[in-house]
Amino acid sequence: MNPATYTPDQLLGPLNAVEREHAPEHLYVAGDLGILQTGARVAIVGARQASPAGLARARKLAGRLVREGAVVVSGLALGIDTAAHTAAIEAGGRTIAVIGTPLERAYPRQNELLQARIAADHLLVSQFPPGTKTQRFHFPHRNRTMALISDATVIIEAGETSGSLSQGWEALRLGRLLYITHAVASDPTLKWPASMLDYGARILSNDTLDDFLEALPPRVPDPLDVAVPF
Amino acid sequence: MSQFPSEVAFGALLQYAVRGQSPLSRRSRDVRTAIKTNGVLGSVAVIAHAAVRAKENLEADGCLSRLLGPDVTLVPMPRSSLIKEGSLWPARVICEALRACGIGDEILPCLSRAEAIGKAAFAASDRRPDPPDHYRTIRVESVRPLDSPTALVLVDDIVTRGSSFVGVLPHLTATFPGTPIHCFALLRTISQGDIESILDPVAGRITYRAGHLHRDP
């Protein structure tokens, strides 16, 4: 591991006032910073105790995003997060893990090897300084930071109390793309999807996948060789 | 039912190709994304950069000077979705950037969306919200009388067909009777083909007749 400390502006470019509101003071990173310049960053998040169908959707989406040149971002939790990271790696893509612990600590323990691999070959990010004692509220804060790092967030599967919801609301606050899967949006037992749709979330389905991919910002070198072409 | 205007004067500074595949058309969609997120290209804040370009058009007595000026009051268009306090509101950011360049002497955020409405850019042409949809879902917040009869400019990030402008204008004309009202969007959509440049200031008209909207240019 080769940890380094940056401000969010140093890593992500200048933040606007809305982005700055919940941005952490520093980001501690290990791995390949070049990943931040290689493609649109899409967070795939959801339940730790995910259904087989949810896990399959996460893997399928991660694989498709890799084929499109995007970077898969997630939080290294069990369930959807693990499925997204591993599918991205298996597809030969790049992945970023934004964790709720300091870099030197793995939570959950089951993902210790995966975390080490991401720190070595991909990118591991934490907003918590080395030695920080992990608290429950660190995880929703981690989710807000993941929303900041990501150009878009997709919630694959989440209950009413899922930490993924804090990421969804932060993505909406930032004006970023937020998609929720059709399966979740049509689940009559859930109230949060309808609320998020009112505030700007969109439904991800086979019919809307191309629109979603088209809306992602590029992070490839500008073909016109000028930063702002007007 | 409110009386919708049959013709609305509008201006736009930039254009983007919705489906064009040339490098410039693709790049224009990056500009759209940066405007929607108040983002940067390179390290340049795109909305602030565009506001400078608008100011240059006014200083050269370009077409936007028919709509914009130092003494107009800027009214940001509500987003199509509901919005929570502290969230990004692109139209408001555009108003602030214009004002920072000396365009407009006041920002009046007097409109809000009471009910989410489908996004024009993401809906099939026959399912896009029409002016009555916009009218029905917009509320006017309490506003004080304007100090002087300056023109109002309704400011949006993107104009597609102009449905939101036509739908919202009756609220403003009812609230500020006798005050001239214009419409301005930073970007206009080009639905077919490629574009030759992203910067393309225009002043034109949106017509609404027999339920049909037409934007020219």
TrEMBL record, chain A:
Q: Identify the residues that the record assigns to the Smf/DprA SLOG domain, covering every copy.
A: 18-214
Family recorded in the similarity comment = Belongs to the DprA/Smf family.
Q: Name one GO biological process term.
A: DNA-mediated transformation
Note the InterPro entries from the entry. DprA, DrpA_SLOG
- Report the protein name in the record: DNA processing protein
Q: Name one Pfam family in it.
A: DNA_processg_A
TrEMBL record, chain B:
Task: Tell me what this protein is called.
Answer: Phosphoribosyl transferase-like protein
Say which species the protein is native to.
Answer: Thiocapsa rosea
What lineage does the source organism belong to? Bacteria, Pseudomonadati, Pseudomonadota, Gammaproteobacteria, Chromatiales
